[in-house]
Amino acid sequence: MIRGVTVIIPTYNHSDLLERTLVCLKHQEADTSLFEVIVCDDGSSDDTKEVACSFEADLDLRYCYQKDLGFRAGTARNMGLHLAKYEICMYLDTGVLVGSDLIVNIIHFHQCYENTIGLGTVHGMNQKDDQHPLAKYLQSIASSEHPEACLRNPMLKAYPDSRQTQFDFYENDLDRCLAPWSMFWTSMVSVETHLLRQVGGFDESFHGWGHEDLELGYRLWKAGLHFRADPSLRALHLPHEQFNPVEMTSRKNHLHFVKLHQELPVELSYVNQNFIYEMVLGQFKVADQYLPQDYDDLDPTRLGLHNEGRRLAVGYMTPAFVNRFNITDVFACNQRNAEMIRMQRPDVHTAFKAGFVNFCEDDIYQSAILTDVWKVIPITLLIVLLDEMLRIAKRVYLLDTAGLQLDNLPIVGEQLPTGFHAKSIASAGKTAVYDITRLARRLDAEVNNL
To answer: pTM of the predicted model, to two decimals?
Structure first.
């Protein structure tokens, strides 16, 4: 492929904002032979085509169109990926202002870092456009000032990219964080074209706003790509009217993301609302060092696990535990456990997840064993997990080992949330076993028996 940059801009009925972005690209320091622009129209009914094509004399620009079948930004971006002729693809949103050195800096970045995703700072990303006090001011200067002047405006410090704290904390080396894919926002991001094509581009099953970019970032991360922020890549996301059902479609698409990748990092991103995501994910990563995994003293027959049906175990465990307890399904809370069990017991259905979100019918499991992992789960998330276990399993058992040294972990639960009833059914050594029920359901059953 040709060395250079393909700039892919998805757009829909925002010809005024598109024009502002194209003006920025028109004034690039780089020679026009080093980049092309592909405007990917998601079914606009305004003068988007006319505005885009008016720049053909100044830019190597192509315009492509798809029928309006709802918000399909990922599908639109894939049109650009299919047509791209340069080695680097940069996704740039409509209404993003960039400096005149953008193309030069992107080329330099990818010369320095191979197999690396380049993330830029986009002021205003993840801000509530219609609520931020600077919104009207930024809209006014964007229409009256040169883009370079906008990017130099000191007021931008008060209109930050919400990822900037993480960029600074990790000193731009995002491989140091546990979920760099969670910062893969296509407002302004660059990736080598052949790598995007290798993973298949955007998943076109997403409809509506949100998470098609994170899903692609997750696949790129799993494919082994590196992630790095570059402070020389700066932009301003112009405030504009939001697509109304954003929150609704974003949540729906987030759940679709979880369904596509039923793994701990993704399901945790869906249910975690109150804690720092990296902290909770990090705790799952190291908690196996503090928790038992064999439970040699326990007698499986005391739990009735000799019965027919599927038997689920959740947490950290060894293949020996799986064998002894006659487990048919495993939700392993770290990748290492999951791989070990898959290798030694390929007949067992093993997933790298905790089970916060499951796409299965009620009572699909005869029983579920929740190991001591429950002690390192924040209580709000533990409620979600217990409710889900009680939905998918006819009986839920909780293992409780006394004397565990968990003080070094940042989040320690070690208590059953209010609303659940624990009935002791067995103990051996330091480990007790409890039969767990939801208190409300238990009371309902008692009332029905009166």
So the answer is: 0.91
**Structural domains of the chain, with CATH:** 2-261 (3.90.550.10), 280-448 (3.40.50.150)
Strand pairing class (393-401; 431-438): antiparallel
CB 286 within 8 Å of CB 274:
no
Contacts for 255 with CB less than 8 Å, ≥ 6 apart:
270, 357
The count of other CB atoms within 10 Å of the CB of residue 272 is 18
pLDDT mean for each 10 residues of the chain (450 residues): 94 93 95 97 94 97 92 92 98 94 98 97 71 63 64 76 93 97 96 98 92 97 98 86 58 94 97 84 92 91 72 96 95 95 98 98 96 93 96 96 88 80 90 87 44
Structure token digits, residue 417: 């949330």
Round to whole Å and give the CA distance between 295 and 324: 10
Q: Are 117 and 220 in contact (CB under 8 A)?
A: yes
Q: Say which residue the tokens 């219609």 belong to.
A: 130
